[in-house]
Amino acid sequence: MAGRGFTVKKRWDNPVEHAMPAEARVPAEVRLGAVAVRPATVLAPMAGVTDTVFRRFIRHASLFSHAELGVNADLASHISESRSGAPDSMGDSQSSVGETQIDASITNAQSGCGLIMTEFTSADGLSRMRETKRRRYLTFYEDEHPIAAQLFGSNPETLADAARIVEETGFDTVDLNLGCPAKRVVGSNGGSGLLRDLPRIGEIFHAIRKAVTIPFTVKFRMGWNESQIVCVELARMAEAEGLNGLALHARTREQGYSGQAQWNWIAAVKEAVRLPVIGNGDVRTPEDAAAMVAETGCDAVMIGRAAPANPWIFRQIAQYTATGRYEKPTTEDRYQMIRAYFEMLMAEAEATKDLPRDARMGDPVGKMKQFATWFTHGVPGGAKLRSAIYHARYGADVLSEVERFFVARMEAGESAEPEIDAESEDAARAFADAALVCD
Ligand SMILES: Cc1cc2nc3c(=O)[nH]c(=O)nc-3n(C[C@H](O)[C@H](O)[C@H](O)COP(=O)(O)O)c2cc1C
Questions:
Q1: Which residues of 118-128 are buried (b: 16+ CB within 10 A; e: fewer)?
Q2: Which of the listed residues 323, 351, 378 is the one where a domain comes to its end?
Q3: Which residue among 141, 148, 187, 267 is least enclosed by CB atoms within 10 Å?
């Protein structure tokens, strides 16, 4: 796009003058056992969203910012280099993936996302699955480290077996899901269903802790409902059983995604334990992240729904922490970003097309449509683009609709920055509702 003559503007003059006060700074590091998470920001697990392509996309998202690199780096080509040894078995996915051209620690610092997590994975399923299917659920690439695998289930022994598989596969940490509100999960006592059975949670903590040596964390909601808040007790149990950290989504199961996350409960949990506490719920901007740290004293901040709409958020938090200001993506940045994500999806589909069906990447065109929908909500004119994309049959058609949309905006000098309006609020709600069927 450089040839099209778009200009790049710096958004501030002397950022160092605006450094954040210490109490509102997202920490530079949090340690989950032996694993250092730098900076202390985490991409929340999101079923249907945080697959290997999306996770790597977030890790590399910084390449789509103009200011520091001064170039329009081609993310997709970097990624395809890192993926050149596409796995043909679980073990190979760890050992034979080609050399990445992007040093993971540098990339972390650039993107500002210290830890990424898989979508939640059924422990029952994992222990029953054929090797090929496990591969699809547990595939990750070298440039994803540090990475956590999240499990859900209700049987302590099955969960312990699944945690062993996670450890053998090479994940850096294993996480237990006690938050998912989906009926199918809760119905079999998994996810937030377990919040009504603390003794069972104690058994599960114990069994998983005994089964693995990698750091073990838990992600949970405050409780089943307002009259059964268990998060402080649960945090103490986690500490007593030797877990290495916890993440609290500060809502009850009954709340689903409605209302506001109640950060005061994150503060209460932080007060109660010495374990690292990761705060989660309703962080949409760098300002929110700073406010969460200031209000709760949490050791790290986890971000879910804001990431697909604004993949730069982790980097923006890092900038805001350091300088009190952050860059906003230009229309060109947004265009490059969506295009690169699509190219990554198609590259992954191509790289896995000869694998057994279970191990192949799912429908890339469906994913492109889904992502384009989140990414353009609130963007002026986005509804028209979404409708065109909805009717597209092939990946190339989606790409050309996206190109048409963004190039027209750039040539007209119009912004593609989302405006928070009724439409984007509706989209946020629809996205959250998707989580209620998050399996
Ligand atoms: C589409 C979607 C899927 C989700 N899937 C999971 C999941 O697999 N495991 C989990 O622990 N939480 C899951 N969540 C919850 C998020 O991890 C996070 O706790 C929640 O969205 C609140 O954070 P946010 O306000 O930053 O979005 C999901 C949320 C969404 C929107």
A1: bbbbbbbbbbe
A2: 323
A3: 187
